[in-house]
Amino acid sequence: MGTTASQLRKDLLSEYQVVMHVFFRAHKRFSELLSKEDRNIPTPRVPMEKVLSLPELKSNPFRKRICHVFSTSDMKDGSLTFEDFLDLLSAFSDSATLEIKSHYAFRIFDFDDDGTLDGGDLEKLVNCLTGETDDTRLTTEEMRQLISNILEESDIDKDGTVNLSEFQHVISRSPDFVRSVQI
Amino acid sequence: MTTAMSLFFVFTADEEDTVIDSDGRQERAKEKERKKERDRKRRRNVARRASSARKEGKELEDRPGREERRGRKKRDKEGKGKGGEDERQEEVKNDTVAKTQKNFSNENTRKLEQKEIEVVGEEDGDTEEKRKNGRPEKGGKKEDNGRGETVEKKQKKKRVETSAEHESSEEEEDEEEKVGEEKPEVLSPEELEKLKEEVDERKKLISTLRGKPWPMRKKLLTLRESHEFVEKYEGALGKGKSRKLYAYKVMMLKKWMKFQRDFENFKTACVPWEMKIKEIESHFGSSVASYFIFLRWMYGINMILFGLTFGLVMVPEALMGRPYGSMPRKTVPRADEANAMDFAVLWDFGGYAQYSVLFYGYYNSQRAIGWLKFRMPLSYFLVGVGTVAYSYMVVIRTMARNANEDGGGDNNSFNFSWKMFTSWDYLIGNPETADNKFASITTSFKEAILEEQESRKDDNIHLTRFLRVLANFLVLCCLAGSGYLIYFVVRRSQKFALEGLESHSWWERNEVNMVMSLLGMFCPMLFDVISALENYHPRIALQWQLGRIFALFLGNLYTFIIALMDEINLKREEEEVLKLNMTIWEASLYNGTMGANSTAPPITVHPADIPRGPCWETMVGQEFVRLIVSDTMTTYITLLIGDFLRAVLVRFLNYCWCWDLEAGFPSYSEFDVSGNVLGLIFNQGMIWMGAFYAPCLPALNVLRLHVSMYLQCWAVMCCNVPQERVFKASGSNNFYMAMLLVILFLSTLPAIYTIVTIPPSFDCGPFSGKSRMFDVIQETLESDFPAWFGKVFSYASNPGLVLPFLLLMVLAIYYLQSTSKSYKQANLELKKKLQTQNEENKKKTKMAALKAAMDLEEAQKARSEAPRQQRKNNASQQSYTGEKNTVTGHLVSSFVFVYPPAPRGHRIPGPLPGNQWQPAPSVQRVPNSQRHRV
């Protein structure tokens, strides 16, 4: 492990430490994900499939969304560089603030990337939460009721969607949001 | 932000206008057109000012760099000019800057004129621009005007883009001129002040960088730039010698920060069992993990209690006190010597174990022992008080912290949203648990919907009420029955003890402990069955269940204590009798030896032969230790049988059984979080109660917790299945802590009662020979402190002083209570105010949205009338577009909520010298979340 860590310049390391919470473990995990030939490329990317195979993300229903949100790839393929990976970990670390967490959570829930949670997003979100199997799915009637209830509560300006500020408003009141969004 | 605010005012002002003139559509449209133009002008000005402010900063930041370079050159030329180097450098800077600015300003006046003309031409293009902007905004929902236009638009866009650079360069120059006008002199004191401010701001940015939701690359970039900036200009602030000092200070500060960071990392690396708990967390969700975290926390506390008692009581007595066999209290009596080493006796903590440092009776009442003059009795007393005080402190502090973290999740107004947004436990990494979680989320959704529907029509309230009353009645019966049973058993065991233990079977000897453990095992199950009657929501049902088990345990414990009290009184009577006998015995001994030989040396009787009192303190300690041991054993055995054996049977008998054991009746067990937590809490309560009379208890408990940790971790991972209803534990965290506090209070109560009211045994323990245990304090005050100190203390403990002091404390509590109440009230008021403001703002936003839509339509109309003009002028729109988007983003977020909006790109507000940094648009990955709104 020492060799890979020392590849990073020392000053870069201290910079990472300022902005980051867990560093060394992250780098270790990241280099485990990399294949052999990738290690020689200056800024290697881990494809999404590999990131998804991480035990922490394996059974998370939002795993693909998480990859897409944190990926800076131009191809939109959800692949992560080391910096993206650090982003992911620091957002999910237990010392990240509510603001960071809610920000990224909003983007994870925003399935169509349009900046608001509309009915479609919420429906997808419910489907993610209730799993793939049919017996846990909600019926359309229940779904309609649920979404209208949610919008009634959190859509403060009544425009039919939940935007980031409204989302943060709701989340900031929740007692256990910060603790639940951790890896 | 300032720009956003000013724009906001413009906007609202317009809004009011529209509200007032609500006549015909035509008129309004006209009016609006005019207003729009006005508005646009204003807005553009605002926007330009904003951008110029930013760019000015950038320009300025470049300049000092240049200056410094030049300055350095000059310095090199000058060689060894020592004296007024600084001043000279500054002069040089001033000169150069002044020159450059003059040049620029000449150019700029020309450009500005050009621009003014263009601004006028821009007006019409604006509408077109607006429409273009509006298209993606509305998400293509409202208008779809055919294909032909889009092609046209694309072409235009290109043109706009090309011209954008031109525009921005112009702007740059524009504001450079402004700088020139405003500040003819650079690096004046004010400038320095500003520089300093800037540096401070950068520092602040560095320290708060972690809390920004930016991508890592941007963070790094910002960090690096800020670091460079700070390094570059920090030195320039000081002068001469102070500069060096300053640099040194900065360096030390940096080192210190680094050290702190390393220390923090070290601390996190030192937390024990972290990986184990994480693994459990990923398999079973956070509720099960919360038990283990609680266990670890408990372990930490017990470590400290153990350190206190071990380091200050047990070790000094063992090392410096008199050795074993030197005194009656330190020797096994002759009658017991034969089997003092038997395992059965030792297991019962009799024999040699009883006459060792493990128990109260062994300690000597000598005031100071060893060469250190260690005050043993005082230390014993203070450690006893200290453990309790420390426990109180820790529990209350943790509770306060938890309460802070909860942050007032008081109202139920976001029931559904919370279920939606926060129900997934991101810690879950096991597919099976994830499936369970899916199921539980689904049921919770369904339940919530049902509840919502049912809350309107609540039928059969009487039946539910009746059932609940019935259930509570049954539970009360159970509690009373178990209490009576324990009392009965303890009484019986006392009878047995008086008759002598040897004549009874194993069961009769261990009846009390066994009955208590069995009750603790079966009553909760009974409660579980009863609670099915009540039909509560699972979370509330859990709390009821916890409360009932709590009451059961507490009842049992207190029955035990009352029985123990009876026993103490018995022992004390025995002691009185013995004291009398003792004098007779001594006299007879004296007489006997005197009669035989008058010149014999003073009689030496082996300490084992001297009669001794029953020493009720050791008896109490022994009882507690036995209780703890039997409790631990029952826990482990139930774990092995109930979990492990069951799992093995289910697993292997499943191959040859007629129904599916794994899915059917016995199945695998679930981890019972609440029961385990309660067990832990009560165990701790017993430790607190008994630790004064048996200093070994914390050590035993540390051992127990250590083993528990490994054993339970293993058991959970190998033979439990994830809970069917995976609920999050965080909500009940303080619930457990509150229970712990109650237990702590209730367990210190009897301990303090015995210490204060019952006189200590006359021949054992560190307080023997005193009338009360706390007399040791007075003794120390009299003999170890100067006389005046004792006097002061006696004055201070005078009831005339103590009573007013108590009164004062009560008053203070009352005062604090009422202020906190009023704060709460104020909070509520503020909340209400916020809500009303929100509503007002909502209305305004709605109006704004409406108006924007109208604008859009009209703009379209206008455009279809005059497409030509726009094409001509669209060149100068781009910058405006960009500005508008960000600005409206700020606008919306700043007045929909009064909460601070999420930072969308860091921006340094005012014109500051040396502002090197600007948000790079390519890296800015902040969502365009606000675009839809206006």
UniProtKB/TrEMBL annotation, chain A:
Keywords: Calcium, Magnesium, Metal-binding, Repeat. GO terms for molecular function: calcium ion binding; magnesium ion binding. Residues 97-132, 142-177 form the EF-hand domain. It comes from the Eukaryota. PROSITE patterns: EF_HAND_1 (PS00018), EF_HAND_2 (PS50222). The keyword Metal-binding applies. InterPro entries: CIBP, EF-hand-dom_pair, EF_Hand_1_Ca_BS, EF_hand_dom. It holds the Pfam family EF-hand_7. This is Calcium and integrin binding 1. The lineage of its organism: Eukaryota, Metazoa, Chordata, Craniata, Vertebrata.
Automatic annotation (TrEMBL), chain B:
It comes from the Eukaryota. Residues 22-36, 53-96, 108-118, 128-153, 180-193, 858-868 have a biased composition (Basic and acidic residues). The keyword Transmembrane applies. It is found in: Membrane. One of its GO terms (biological process) is detection of mechanical stimulus involved in sensory perception of sound. One of its GO terms (molecular function) is mechanosensitive monoatomic ion channel activity. Residues 97-107, 872-884, 915-934 have a biased composition (Polar residues). GO terms for cellular component: plasma membrane. It is a multi-pass membrane protein. Residues 1-193, 858-884, 906-934 are annotated as: Disordered. Residues 820-847 form a coiled coil. The chain crosses the membrane at residues 297-320, 377-396, 469-490, 511-533, 545-565, 735-756, 792-816. Residues 168-179 have a biased composition (Acidic residues). The keyword Membrane applies. Residues 37-47 have a biased composition (Basic residues). Keywords: Coiled coil, Membrane, Transmembrane, Transmembrane helix. Belongs to the TMC family. This is Transmembrane channel-like protein. It comes from Oncorhynchus kisutch (Coho salmon). The gene is TMC1.
